[in-house]
Design a protein that fits this description.
The chain contains 12 helices and 10 strands. α5 packs parallel to α12 and α6 runs antiparallel to α12. One of its GO terms (biological process) is negative regulation of DNA-templated transcription.
Length: about 350
């Protein structure tokens, strides 16, 4: 039900009920709503409005209580239309800036810090997807000769990550040839991503045809082998899973087992986070909206991050549906923004 279909009293009562429930986790009765909402209406009128909201599927009455709790549909309406988001408080923003330093560190270390910090600030599980290394520009390449016409390729990327590959050549190259090839490739391709480098190499091979000199031939052969596509295992970093054990909504042992198995296997979680990364801004899944049974009863709040105009992944938190959305959403949004800023600063140092 769109919020526009609710009159002002119903919207105010629903907002009050959800805020009260998110604060203490208990069903909210009509008398409590009468005191808290500030509306000059009788408890009987409030009960009638609550009955209408229940018929609309926005609230539900647990069989053990006369009070009501919001349904996932009610929480969705609250987040989309009724919540009043405020900028992150200055002290929390300062903490994020202080604990997400863009200093000399690898991207994976930075992402791990972001995951841990999200968990610490929300007391939920912090999650961050790890981008492919090929998404970062190449800073430097070097070669080391190995026996049997093999070469150790050392790739240093703009995020300070180092990747080693061993390639097999048609003939052995001596140290001088490897140094000349490295100098040529660094001059030509430093600052480009591997996909872009492969495109340049194909064009150079077509244009040079069979007239390559010895240096060019060696460099191109080495580059073709060094920059060949390689499968990279996608990953997602998770911190603070044990925080979720402290919430009564998730205290069921079977539910916890399924949830922790999902954290361990990561495949479904990674799939969900990749969907989130493709959309700008904050994404929020409440309960079964995620499409994964293990996350029923949980809410997932994410935001995408990137560098130089490219989306690299998503950061977020997983917690019970009873979370302080007006605080969690700005924390996730600010973390994604600061992470993007840090990666942009790393990229500009190339």
């Amino acid at each position: 039900m769109p919020a526009a279909q609710l009159d002002a009293r119903a919207r105010r009562l629903l907002r009050t009920l959800i805020a009260q429930y998110l604060a203490d986790g208990e069903p909210v009765g009509s008398r409590t709503l009468s005191r808290s909402s500030g509306l000059d209406v009788s408890p009987a009128t409030i009960r009638n409005i609550m009955s209408d909201l229940e018929d609309a599927g926005l609230v539900a009455s647990p069989h053990t209580s006369a009070g009501r709790v919001p349904t996932p549909r009610g929480l969705r309406l609250f987040v989309d239309s009724l919540i009043e988001l405020q900028p992150l408080p200055q002290d929390e923003m300062a903490r994020l800036r202080r604990e997400l330093p863009p200093g000399p560190t690898t991207t994976r270390d930075l992402l791990g810090n972001a995951s841990t910090l999200l968990s610490a600030m929300t007391q939920f599980a912090g999650v961050v997807t790890v981008p492919r290394q090929a998404d970062f520009p190449l800073r430097h390449i070097d070669f080391v000769a190995l026996p049997d016409a093999r070469v150790l390729v050392i790739l240093v990327f703009s995020d300070n990550q180092v990747q080693n590959r061993i390639v097999q050549l048609a003939r052995p190259l001596d140290g001088r040839e490897l140094e000349q090839a490295a100098n040529y490739l660094n001059a030509q391709f430093a600052g480009l991503r591997l996909d872009d480098i492969r495109g340049h190499l194909l064009r150079e091979l077509r244009e040079a045809s069979g007239e390559l000199n010895r240096l060019m031939s060696s460099a191109v052969e080495l580059a073709a082998a060094s920059f060949a596509p390689q499968s990279e295992s996608d990953d997602v970093l998770v911190s603070g899973q044990t925080n979720l054990m402290g919430y009564s909504e998730l205290a069921n042992l079977e539910r916890l087992r399924e949830l922790f198995e999902a954290f361990q296997k990561k495949s479904e979680l990674l799939q969900l986070m990749e969907v989130c990364a493709k959309a700008p801004g904050v994404r929020l899944f409440i309960g079964e909206e995620s499409g994964f049974a293990a996350l029923d009863g949980c809410s997932v709040v994410t935001a995408s991050y990137g560098a130089q105009g490219r989306v690299l992944g998503a950061v977020g938190v997983i917690g019970p549906t009873r979370m302080a959305y007006e605080r969690v959403i700005p924390v996730v949004q600010a973390t994604a923004g600061l992470l993007s800023d840090a990666l942009n600063r790393v990229a500009t140092t190339l």
